[in-house]
């Protein structure tokens, strides 16, 4: 069997649903991982980077193996997509009552004012709303 076929079969066995890591890193973080590994390969090995970035060694291996670099137009689009992703993620966090960082608050992502109340006042208001339904 050709090497690539064996590799493809091994990856299919390892990841039956395809590769979809839980944690996604920004394009800047990916570039940073590649840069520090290139400068200090004996210090920043794959396992060390995996531990520092709290990712799987497989994800770090794939990042380091990748040689693709975006064209300037693609890079702008990637940055815009990353910003949109950040807005969605922090909007979800804001719904849960987590206060977004200043960067996202300037973008208009704020949590419900009910989260600014004291806990017992907030619980009383929620209970009152439930009673009305």
TrEMBL record:
A cellular component term, taken from the record's GO annotations: mitochondrion
Q: What does this protein do?
A: Required for respiratory activity and maintenance and expression of the mitochondrial genome.
Organism expressing this protein natively: Immersiella caudata
User: Where is it located?
Assistant: Mitochondrion
Record's keyword terms, sorted: Transit peptide
Organism classification: Eukaryota, Fungi, Dikarya, Ascomycota, Pezizomycotina
Q: What is its main location?
A: mitochondrion
Task: Give the similarity note.
Answer: Belongs to the RRG9 family.
Kindly provide the name given to this protein in its UniProt entry: Required for respiratory growth protein 9, mitochondrial
């Amino acid at each position: 069997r050709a090497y690539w076929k064996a590799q493809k079969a091994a990856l299919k066995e390892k990841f039956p649903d395809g590769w979809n890591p839980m944690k996604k890193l920004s394009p800047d973080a990916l570039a940073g991982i590649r840069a520090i590994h290139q400068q200090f390969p004996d210090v920043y090995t794959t396992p060390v980077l995996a531990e520092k970035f709290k990712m799987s060694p497989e994800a770090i291996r794939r990042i380091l193996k990748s040689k693709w670099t975006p064209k300037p137009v693609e890079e702008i689009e990637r940055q815009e997509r990353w910003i949109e992703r950040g807005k969605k993620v922090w909007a979800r966090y804001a719904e849960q009552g987590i206060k977004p960082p200043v960067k996202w608050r300037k973008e208009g992502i704020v949590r419900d004012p009910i989260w600014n109340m004291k806990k017992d006042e907030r619980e009383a208001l929620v209970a009152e709303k439930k009673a009305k339904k």
